[in-house]
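step 3/5: co-fold with acetyl coenzyme *A
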Amino acid sequence: MIGKGRSDVRVTITGLGAYAPERVITNDELARMVDTSDEWIIERTGIRERRIAADSQALSDLSMPAARQALEQAGSDGTDVDLLIVATVTPDMMFPSTSAILADQLGAKDAAAYDLSAGCTGFMYALAQAYGMVASGLARRALVVGGDVLSRILDWTDRSTVVLFGDGAGAVVLEPSEETGFLAFELGADGAGGEHLWLPGSGSRHFDEPEKAIKMNGREVFKFATRVLVQSAEDILSRCEVTKEDVDVYVPHQANVRIIDHATKKLGFPSDKVVVNVERYGNTSSGSIPLALRDGIDDGRIRTGSLVLMTGMGAGLTWGSALLRWTL
Ligand code: ACO
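step 4/5: write tokens
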């Protein structure tokens, strides 16, 4: 699915927040749990450390500080949010939805609230949905949260996955605006590749030996990721008749520095235009892009007027890009 935003109705991000739990796990600590090393992890992934939720923290606990920051920046206390979408594969529980839990905590009594599952691409899918609802006039103020507590669904004895992931969440507020914010979205899914990154035994399908941990074919996911990051970016830029040189900041999903480097080179973006923070957080799934937006703002690269290209990819297999003019 690809489409440009409406030219008669403008929608933008009016607030952003991000949160990662306090507990840091370094590569050396992981090397004491599984047969790996700091050198291997840095060379193959670029990751140096990741944040891991405390036993008492569920997704809503990570999401709430991010949501509060985003709402504060947007000048809202949350009671006037009328759409709340949480993109995640690790909700507090299957139901009630984490979004309904957050809506209650925020006092958003008139909000439609639901969770959305699109793997690590969830935040991009949720942005597109919220954009559509706000642009159509169905919602006035939307809160989009992307976050995951992947540490809960990792096999902590599996060195091939445990080194990659971390926990974190981010949130944005979307509202109608005088200025053009979102310009276009491109979203896609390839269910045939779903077997390369999956959580068998996590739903209604019967498995003889149900697993409660992520299963991944790293090489296949790597090939998929490098392909779609480039393709999706090229498609959305071409649809908007925007050149790569016009893009001020590129915010790719933070899965692996090698994947990001590959996409960046193919796309021809100089490294100073690319936000990379995977070395500090690992892959936080739906939290990854909002955490990277936060860092891009903090280091001064994302500022008012910047043309920002974001692309996510992940389980499903799914991918998604958004192009927006930063108006904050
Ligand atoms: N420490 C040390 N050795 C390891 C580790 C580890 N943590 N993990 C694997 N190895 C070994 C393997 O066993 C293999 O050994 P062998 O040659 O004796 O068989 C060797 O290292 C090479 O393994 P490869 O899988 O070929 O390593 P590769 O260079 O492909 O890197 C990696 C593996 C990092 C997983 C890479 O394939 C990757 O990043 N893939 C994408 C993963 C990803 O991004 N997933 C998330 C997608 S987003 C979402 O929705 C969650």
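step 5/5: annotate
The chain is about 30% helix and 25% strand.
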